[in-house]
Structures are given as structure tokens and as C-alpha cells.
Amino acid sequence: MEFGKVHLNLKTMLLTMMMFKWGILCTATSDKCLSEPCQNGATCVDTMDDYACICAREGVRYMGKNCDELYDACAFAPCEDCTSSPGTTEYHCICPDGLTGDNCTEEVDECQSNPCSEPRSMCVDQLNGYFCRCPAGFGGQDCGTHVTDCIDEPCRNNGTCVLRPEGFECHCAPGFEGKTCEEDVNECSSEPCQNGAICLDGVAQFHCFCVPGFQGYNCEIDINECASRPCENNATCINEKDHYECECLAGFTGVNCEIEIDECESSPCRNGATCHDLIATYSCECLPGFDGVDCEVDVDECASEPCQNGAVCHDMVNSYKCDCTDTGFHGDRCEVDIPECASDPCQHGATCLEGVKGYACLCWPGYEGPNCEIDINECADQPCENGGECFERSDPSHWELEWELSFADAAGYICQCQPGFAGENCSVNIDECESEPCQNGGTCEDRISGYTCTCPVGFLGELCEVNIDECESQPCQNGGWCEDGRASYTCHCPDAEPSELPWGGDHCDVKLLGCVDHECQNGATCLPWLENGEHGHTCLCPHGFYDEQCSTRTTFSFSTPGFIHIQVVLEERSRREVEHHVHQGFGVQLRFRTTLPNMLLVYRGDVDNHLLLEIVNGGLRAKALSEESELDVTFPGLVSDGDWRDAHVFVDKEGLVLILKGPGCDRDGCRVTDGGTDESPFQPSEAFTHIYVGGAPEELLEYSVSGASFIGCMEDLMIDSKPILPQTLPEDQGHELGCSKTEWCEPDPCHGHGRCVDLWTSYQCDCYRPFHSESCSDEFPSWTYSHEDTVSFSVYEVGKSHGSNFNVSFFLRSLKPDGLLFQLRRPTEEEGGEVYFSLYLGMGRVLVSSLPNSVPLTAPIFVTTGEKQLLQVEVQQRQVIFEHAGLRYGIGEIPEVNINSGDQAFIGGLPGEWGSDGWGGHYKGCLQDLCLDSVHLDVDDWNSSDEEEIYLPSITENVKKGCVSDDTCKTKPCLNGGECTITFNDFTCSCLEEYTGKTCETRVWCVSDPCANGGHCVDLPDGYECVYNATFENNPVQYSAGGSLAEPVSDLYVELRTRSENAMLLRASWGSDLLLVGLLDSSVRVEIHTGNSVEALTFTGVRRVADGSWHRVNISMAEKERKASSWVITVDGITDTSSSPERTGSLHFLNEKGATLAIAESFTGCLGAVRVGGVYLPFMDDYKAPQPSQFHLVGKPKIHLGCTSAPVCDSDPCLNGATCEDLFNQFGCVCDSGWEGEQCETDTDDCATQPCVHGTCRDYLAGFECLCRQGYAGTLCDEDLDECEHHACEHGGTCQDGPNMYTCICPKDYSGPLCQWDYPPIQCGKDVQCDNDGICSDGLWGANCTCMPGFTGSSCETEINECESNPCRNGGSCLDRFNMFVCECPPGYSGPICDTNKQAHKQGIPWLVVAIPLLCLCVLILIIGLTFMALTARKKRQSEGAYSPSSQELAGARLEMDSMLKVPPEERLI
């Protein structure tokens, strides 16, 4: 019953709230619910555009939109297969196999029945099943079946037995197969012998006995009868058994395709044609007029209709003739239009339009006649009024000489009006004051053909444009600079020198005494002033001080959590403050300093209406909340670093504004704004009278994100722009005057082993691993495993459940690439329990596995480097993440594992009887700070505290404290006098100078620099050799090995540089055995004679080596392991040629004592290293070299060491500034641009290739220039200019490009050369009305408006903006006026366009020194000028304004080009 009441109350409250929201509480009835759609006692609730039914919960339950369906509990049940009782909340889940429970979420444990046979078998539960993990020797589903394994030695015939989870596997010896290797493999079953050979089976092998005609191991080689190439004329030779056949190409016959067939024998060509025999075909050369393959077709030349434009074609013998009569065309095919316009018949720039048998002239306006030869005289009717003079536009005699007549503007006339008149026909009397010419407030008085300006005080000039420079008299004294104003000036006094008083007053003539003996305190800056003759000063206080003398401190601090409660009065803001931003809204401004990352600075208001400022995660956040809106701003930069920050947060019409000043922000500060929505601006409430500084009551503090009171210092607190002094605050609210701060982290209390965190009133060390304790001064010890190859491990009992998400981390130092690091096992009835998670090393990388025998996950980093490294393996949602050196690597996924209390962790290995070989054996190395999650796994309780969780081992074997290396030097590994030094589980040997290698096992000889005369020493395994270059000029050198060669010679190596195309490089002989290496036609040639061969092995390369460059030549057997092999020549590492198929063996005779060897018998050039069988041929004998295999010089030949050639560049053979290059006994010239030839003697003709496509080429030295024909451009005159690209066709006219011209094709409503005129022409009054007193006149091409000065546009509808060209200079502001402009100049500038610098006038010589002589000169000029003006008074124009239309008029008959030559800009053709 009580529940029903509560339910009813909740329902009533919900309905009431919804009615308030919709505004219908007790005022209206819902339209949707009037029809009572809800059934079975449900309650109907109206929504914005529908209704909702709240079904009854008592008795029978219902569901659905109208509560008209019986409640089906299965619709909301968590299982898939479900039964329910309709109308109730009861349901029953039908579980699938393997699951049970109310909601089928519990897995059935099939292992409870112990289905696996005993003993030592293990049951592993699975979803809807299980499997049995069997001991060795048993298998089957329940481990009840005995399985044969390797203990029974089942493998026969020397097969190898390998254990497998399902039993064993035999790896059979070659030649056997079967489960136990019991079957002898018949190698002949695959029929390896080919071509009818007989196969004989053996043990792991077979032998083929070939039939005649075949050879090879498998008798696969057919003896090739085509090897002699018997077929001629590119015929194909087909190898058959014991014979060949030639498949001839078309046109050949015979046994060897040696006979060519003559296809012309049958005389196939007709009509007197000549037959030409070809290979496999013929060709007929026809007489003129015939065609076809056999010249059988008589050609009709008119069939292709060659005559164009309606001409008649007459067929002739082997030709045709076109009759062009009465077509208007000519040419062989009547293809050329007779160009009637070629004679340029149209005059006055008219366009000639070609026609068929005629032409038409398209005249410009103002001209007429068939050829546009008549110039229409527009002045014949005397259109100019009021004495104006008429000039035809088309008469060039009126224009200045530089002007060029444009026929597009030649139509019509121009009237030169008398002064005071304007308009197209001079019919308009000009009001010169209408344009407001007088500037700076001057009054304009209109006069006849002019005006007069009456200027206000401070201005002069005809237009009052000159601002009188009050600074000209230099009123400012003592270095002050004067700023001119309107009828006034201002003096800016200079800064005072140290120890001197500053200047002040209107003219900088008074010493300011206000700061003498001033009372500004605490480092404030004194600012003196002078007002109404009274001296005074103002103190500019630094941060943290206030009042007139800056004597009151504004700094206070919080060392414990608390807050200050301040109550203020909200003042109404005046309209002026709002409009002019004098009042910055409701806000708080303060400076703060702290090191804590999360604290509340200020809270203003209550729960529903508040403004708060807080530090969140080191950044600054402000929030404003009211019933209408919520605003939020954040500054993400760090503000809790101990430095002072100035924060100002306020709410105004912009929204919520946060301004931060301090490190990281510019001079104006960092500004963050949240404007909210325009519809609901933020409105503070009366709750804003309550302000909490440094914290807030608990019920308000929970509305902040930081949730903590402020600890730190504050100063300069201002609320609504009014200062709040800490001395006026209550003393019992937890704050202290001043700011006292201990720098906890200086010097570092964490000893460099951690990060010091300043907590303002204390500090905290966040230690780096493996350090710990309050000051990070303690280090977790290292533990050494397998020291001196002992078997070591430790076992831990897991004391709590770690779940399925966990991590294992530790420091590792090891050189052993394999070994078990960490393994988790779950205790079972079997010995050793169940392994479910393993970390181990494999090939130097960390491996992770869960299920036994599963493929492990591999980390990508090699870690067994001998250096200490921090590693972490993290398991999250079955994903394995490996972390090393701050980088995280996702390495894969494992089945879900759970670490439960009571499980066992094994470190470093397993007990000996269990065996850890499956995980790389025992770990060897050091482990430190090993953690499972946050729990340390330590070896002993050496320094544990109650604050740290720790697991101690239950078993520890041979684990040594500290990271201790094996004594790797005890076996004395260093040889040859080397000194051994122990490194971690390794050693280094400090070798004597003559030895090198890990154990000083290798003797080095070149350290003693045994080579004389600059030879390059090369260490050999058994000695050294001195390598030189030498120059030869047919001076042979002989050598002898004296039988010292250890192996037969199978390769030769020669480095050479020469230009001799034919030379003998090396010759060796012994009896009938001979070796020759030389150059033939610049390529390497080799000839080998051995005693057991009848013919010599001779082969020649193709790569040219006699080019003056160094080359490396290697000659060697292709298969050195065989007795006989083909030989190969390589040049510069690239295979040159091979002796294949010819073969021969190695050169044994070179090791005979009587064998002779000579180099450079017929050779001019340089040789570098020459090696025979890998043994160097020295150019200087060195009998100290210890290696047994050596060649020695025979006799004492004179060898010129070093590679030199003739000084071919000494004579400067290259001409014209070319550079000579020494190419070894030959020179080459690198020519400058523009020269060619062997010696750069020839000037290159750059025009020889005719590069200019449509132009003339002009040759220059090292270049050329193309002079393009009209209509073409580009460097090579290859660009056809598209004259249509910038065409002037108007009104959508289509531009048609032509050679050096274009034509406009007009739409139907327009005409004219540029489609600029309407068609048919429009008329004045009917189609056109000119605005702004413009005058309309009808012309040949339509009506035209002549605009009054100051207007433009087709109908004179637009006033010209004279300021558009930015005429005012030096920052002056331009004011547009009618038909003129006015410049308002900045201080220091004057003139009509602000181009006069007043300051410049003040510099230099004093003005009186210059003014008096100039005044005398001006008086003299004035007298002369008055005399001249009296004579010319009648001609003087009567204009006193700046600009008027009459200023462009002249009295003479000649006209200015700008005023008369071109169509005025205000005229537009309609």
C-alpha cells in the first residue's frame, strides 16, 4: 500500500512538471488525450505533438503504445530462448548445451565428473565440452589408450624418433618412408630416366642407362645435330634422333634451304608493268594510270572528286583538270577563295567582310559610303550653344601630335565651352559651389565662372586647404617637440636625464617639482604633473601595493584550506558605461601564485546562479551559470608552476570573458571567450552579492571541478573593478597577510632519482624506478640468476587475485638470448600444476605465451644487450602490450587468463625435475624491481615497509644478491699476451699492437708500417703485402713463385690503365704449358695451353678497357671445385665473356719451380695490384713478409713507381677559354657555351637547326634569338597568339581568332565591330533617359548620354568616387565630394593631398635667416608680376576654386589631348 502511494506521488509529480513545461497546468485539456486512447487503466500524458501512455503496474501487466497488449517478460529478458507467463513479469530461460543459470550465463563444468582416466591425466573444461591432457605414453579422448612413443624405439632403418603431443613421429633416413620408416623408397617409381633409358634403383639413389643418342644423369641431353648450323637463309634447324631437318622460310627451298624461289618467272604483272622479285613474294611497278597488285586496274582520277566549291572535274590520262568558271575560286582544285579584301578596299579602319565574288565594308560610326570613304561632318548643324566651339572627333588636326586616332571613338563631336558652361552642347550653366570645394568648414560663394572660399580660423588657401602650422614658431622649449592641431598645438616634453628634473608646462619651460621629496613607497614610480600652476605627483604602484603612496600591501596567502566570505552591493550600470565599455560587467580580478594543480580560486553566487574561477589539472577554468544560460571557458596552459599570474574573469554583453596575463601570454594577455547564444544572454542575480575567495562552503564547493580550496598566494584582488584590501577582511577566515613560500624543490630533495612535486607547504618525490622511499634515496636490489652457470630460480605464492587485466614489469640485464623470466601456474592434482602464462626470452627478444605449445607473441626489441633495461608486459582485455624505453607496442592477443589468489609465480626457471627447456632453459642474468601490478616480488624482506605490497618467495635456489658477473677471465681466454678484463658475463681483451680479434688471436702486420716508398699495406691472414701502382713502357718484369703456392691457380686479377689497344699484360710458361693475358682491339684476350689438351683455350671479351681509365679485370674458373670448368672474364665487376662451352682445369704448372711469369712485355700504361691465384706480384721485393705463398722479382728490374702520363695539358691546347682535362696520354677540352670542336675552336651556329618555327633566327655567341612574325610568340616563336584571349567583344559576342587579328560574331540583338551597340539602335526619350542632368543625343549606332562632370555610367546614373584612387598621401583620410575630393591630413602634414611635411620645415637654418632674403626677392618678383598681369588680365581665367570643369578649357583653337582627344569617361554609348 505504501509503495502504491509513493508510485502515485511520483506519477503526480511527473505530470505536474510536464504540465508546467507545456504551460497547460489547469488551464487547458490535451487534445490527444481527450479520446482516451490509453486502455487497461493506463494514464494518458500529452506531449508536444503526441501522447504517451503510462501503463498500470498493479494486477495484470500490459504494454504497447496504448497499453493494449499483455506484458511479455521475454521481450526484456537477457537470454535468446525464453518462455514467459503473459501479463506477468515472470520468465524462464531455456539454456543451450554447456550453459546454466537463471539467465544462461553460467558455464557447465564438464570436468566435475572426472571423465579423464587416471593417473596424471588432466581435464580442461571448455564451452559445452572438455578435453583430456594425457601423460606421456597415453592418448585417446579419455587418455585410456596406450600410445607408442620414442621409448619403444619404433623407427626403423636409422630413422629418428621425435615426440609429438599425439604420440611420436619418425624422421626417416634418405631412401626410406612409412610411419616407422619400414618402406624402402623406389627412386625409379617417378620414372626419372628420360628418352627410353633404363632405371636401376639403389638405396636413396638411382642410375640411368641411356640409349644411343642421349647423355646426361637422367639421359635428358639429346646430342644436338644442329650444333654445326647446317640450315641457311635463317631457316630453323629441327634436331631429330641421329639426324636434322631444315624448316625453310617462305621463298627458299632445298635440303639446307639454300635455293631462293624466283616468283617473277610466271610474269604476273600486267599492262606493261615491271616485275621485281622479292623474298617469298614479288612487286609490280605499274605504268602511270594503272593500279592494283598486278597493275590490272585503270585509275579514274576524278573518282575522288578533287575539285572543290562546285567546280567541274575533267578526267585525263593519269591526271585531271578542274574548271573553276563562275565559282569565285581559283587554284588547281578551285580551293582558293579569290580574296576581294586583299586590296584593302575599306577605308577609315572599317572591317572588310569577304563574300563569294564580292565583299562588304562594316563602317565605324561617323563614316559611310560603299567603302566607308565618307567622313560624316557632325559639326555641320552647329550643335554647340552659348558660344561653344565644335570639333569633330574624327578630325586629327585638332589633336596633339603624340595622339593616335581610334576609329572606335571617331564618331560624334566635342564642344569646347566658354567659361561657366558645361554639357555636351554647352547648354548647362555651372554652379561651381555645388561640388562643395571649400575644405575644413570654409564657406563657398558662387561667382561667374568661379567661386570664393571664406576660411575659418586656422586655415588658409583658395580651398581653405592649408592648415596654419602653429608649430612653425617653434613654441616648445627645452627639446620638446610640437604637435600641430586645428588652430592650436601641443608640446610633448622630453624625458629627463638621470638626476635632473623633468620639464613640463604648455611650452616645456617649467621644471616639474612634484616628485621632489615624494612619498611613493615600495619601489613605486613617481609621475610629476603641473596643473593650474600647482605642482603635484602620482604614485604608480607595483603589483602587491595600493593607496596614494603605495604603502598598503594587497598580498595575502592561504596555507590551510579555507575561504574568505565577502559581501558587496551590486551597482546599476549607466547607459554610458554600457555603450562605451567603461564598466567591464560583473567580474573578479586578482593575481595568484601556487603549485597545486586543482583548486578553487573564487566562487561568486549560489547554487543556481554563480560565477567561479578555478585551477583544473594545472589549467585555468571559468564558469558562469544562471537560469537562462551556462557559459564555460578554459585556458589549457599551465598556471600552477609557482609564477605569478594575473587573471580577470567577468560577464558582459560579449558573454563570459577570461583574460590571463603572465608567462606564455603576450602584452595584452591571453583572452578566452564564450559568447553563448544570442537568444538568452547571461543575467546575474542578487546572489552575486556573495563572493567566496580561496574556496567555498561544502555545498557550493561540490559544484566546482577541482573540489578543493586554494593553497597559495593572492594579491591585487578587485571585485567589479573595485579594489579589496586584505586589511579590511575579517581576521578569522584562514588567510595570512603577505606571501611566504619555501622553495621545496631547490636543491633537489629527490637526489636526481625522481621528480620533485612542490605541494606549496611541503613536497613529494615521484621516484623513478628502481628507486623508492620519501627522498628516492633507496634502490631496490638486483638479483643474479644462474651465476657461474648454477641452476637458480625462485617461487612465489600469489597473495591476492589480480584478475584478467594485469602487468609484469622489471629491469633486465642479460647476454643469454634464451631463458624463462616469469611463469604463472595454477595448482592442480598433477605435479607442477597448470601453466597458463609465461614470459621468456627467445633469440634475444621477449616472448609471451599462455596455452602450452601455442605460438608465442614476440616483442620487436632485442633486449639481451648486456645493458640494464626497464621492460613491461601489460595484458588488457586479452591484448598484450610490450613497453620498452617509453614506447608501447601492441604485439597480439592471447586467450583470457585470470591470476587468482593461491597461484604460483616462477622466476628465472623451474625446479630441475620439471624442465624449463620449452621456454629457453634457465634465465642467466640480473633482475631488479620485479612487479606484478603494484606488488614487488623480492627475494628477501630486506627493506620492506608497511606501505608497500610485497610477495616473498616460498622457494629460492642459487639466487645471488646484487648484479654480479661470472668470472669470465678465469679461463684466461686472451691469447698472445692480451690482458683480460671482465665485463658483465663477458670479457674484453686488451691486445698487443700486433694482434687483434676477440681473444687477440689474429696477427696484424701493417701496424708497424712495413711498406717503403708510400706503398699501401694490406693485412693477410698469414702475412701482409705492399701494394703499389707502377708505370711501364714495354719494360717487362719477371717473377718466380719458387714452388711456394699452396693451391693451383684458378684466378687472376689485374688493375690497369692504358690507351694501348693491343698489348701483352701477362705471360707464364713451363714446358708446353702456357698462359697469355693481353689486349686485342682494346678488349681482354686470354689463351691457355695445358699439357693434357690438344687445342688451346682462347676467348676474348667485348668490353673496351684501353680508354685511359682505371679498370679491374678478373679471370677465373666458373666452377673452381671441378677439375675442368669454363673460364670467365669480368671487367669492373661485370661479366664480360666466358669460354663456355670450352673447358680447362686450373693452372698447376705455375707452382713448378722452373715456371716463369712476366708482366708488361709489350705494354705502355699503368698497372696496380696484380694477383695470380690470390698471391700479389710485388713491384718491390720484401723478403720480410711471413706468408709462405709469395712471388719474387727475378733480377733487379727498374720499375717506375706511381702512375704518370705525358703532360698533355701543359701546352694549353684548348682554345677560347676551354678547360683542358688530362685523360691519360690524351687530353679533352671542356668547351664554354657557344664553342665546339676538339679544341673548342669553332663558334657554334645555334641557328643551324632552324629552331625558330614562325620567325627569323639571329645567332649570338652561346645563344640565339628568334624574331617572331606577327601573331606568334615564345622563345622559339612556336606559340600561336590567341588574339581572342583578351578580346573586347561585348554582349556575349563570340570571338573568332585569325592570323594577327580577331573578328566578333555578334548575337542577333547587337551589332558593331565589337558587338557594342544594340540592334536595332535605341533612341533618346523612347529607350533611354539620362540621369543627373545628362544630355541624350541620337547617333548612327543609337542613343548616347553625355554626363555632367562628376557622373558616369551608361545613363549617367553613377557618381564618380574621386577617392577611389587613394589620392591622399602620408595616411591622410579622403572625403569624397561632388566632382572633387578633400584630404584630411594627419598631424605634421598639410597640402591638398597631404604631401607637405611640416616637420621638415622646422629643421635646418632658423626661418628668419632664410625668410628675410626671400621676402626681398618676392617683392621684386611681385613688381614684375604685376606688370605682366596687367597686360594679360583679359586672358586670365576667373577661377579661385581648386577644381572645376572649366579648369580643362583653353582659349586657343588647339585642344588638350586629355580633354578632347579621347571620349570622356562619363560618356557611354547605349
Account of the 3D structure:
There is one protein chain. The protein has 1470 residues and is mainly beta. Helices cover 4% and strands 36% of the residues. The protein has six helices and 128 strands. The strands form 47 sheets. Strands 71, 73, 78, 79, 80, 82, 83, 84 and 86 form a nine-stranded mixed sheet that branches. Strands 53, 55, 60, 61, 62, 64, 65 and 66 form an eight-stranded antiparallel sheet that branches. The protein starts with a helix and ends with a strand. The longest helix is centred in the last third of the chain and has 25 residues, at 1407-1431. Residues 1-30, 574-583, 1400-1406 and 1434-1470 have low confidence and may be disordered.
Overall helicity: under 10%
Unreliable sequence segments: 1-30, 574-583, 1400-1406, 1434-1470
Mean pLDDT: 83
Which word captures the global form?
Answer: extended
> Structural class given helices, strands, pairing?
mainly beta
**Separation of the first and last Cα atoms:** 95 Å
Q: Strand count, sense and closure of the main sheet?
A: 9 strands, mixed
Number of helices: 6
Percentage beta strand? 35-45%
The count of strands amounts to: 128
**Radius of gyration, CA atoms, in whole angstroms:** 56 Å
Brief digest:
With 1470 residues, the chain is mainly β.
Which keywords apply here?
1470 residues; mainly beta; nine-stranded mixed beta sheet; eight-stranded antiparallel beta sheet; 128 strands; disordered N terminus; disordered C terminus
Helices and strands in order, then pairings?
Elements: H1 2-22, E1 43-46, E2 51-54, E3 62-63, E4 69-70, E5 82-84, E6 91-93, E7 99-100, E8 106-107, E9 122-126, E10 129-133, E11 138-139, E12 145-146, E13 160-164, E14 167-171, E15 176-177, E16 183-184, E17 198-201, E18 206-209, E19 214-215, E20 221-222, E21 236-240, E22 243-247, E23 252-253, E24 259-260, E25 274-278, E26 281-285, E27 290-291, E28 297-298, E29 312-316, E30 319-323, E31 329-330, E32 336-337, E33 351-355, E34 358-362, E35 367-368, E36 374-375, E37 389-392, E38 413-416, E39 421-422, E40 428-429, E41 443-447, E42 450-454, E43 459-460, E44 466-467, E45 481-484, E46 489-492, E47 503-504, E48 510-511, E49 525-531, E50 534-540, E51 545-546, E52 552-553, E53 556-558, E54 564-567, H2 575-579, E55 586-593, E56 599-605, E57 610-616, E58 619-625, E59 630-635, E60 645-652, E61 655-661, E62 670-674, E63 690-693, H3 698-701, E64 712-719, E65 722-723, E66 735-737, E67 754-758, E68 763-767, E69 771-772, E70 778-779, E71 782-785, E72 793-797, E73 806-813, E74 819-826, E75 834-842, E76 845-849, E77 857-858, ...
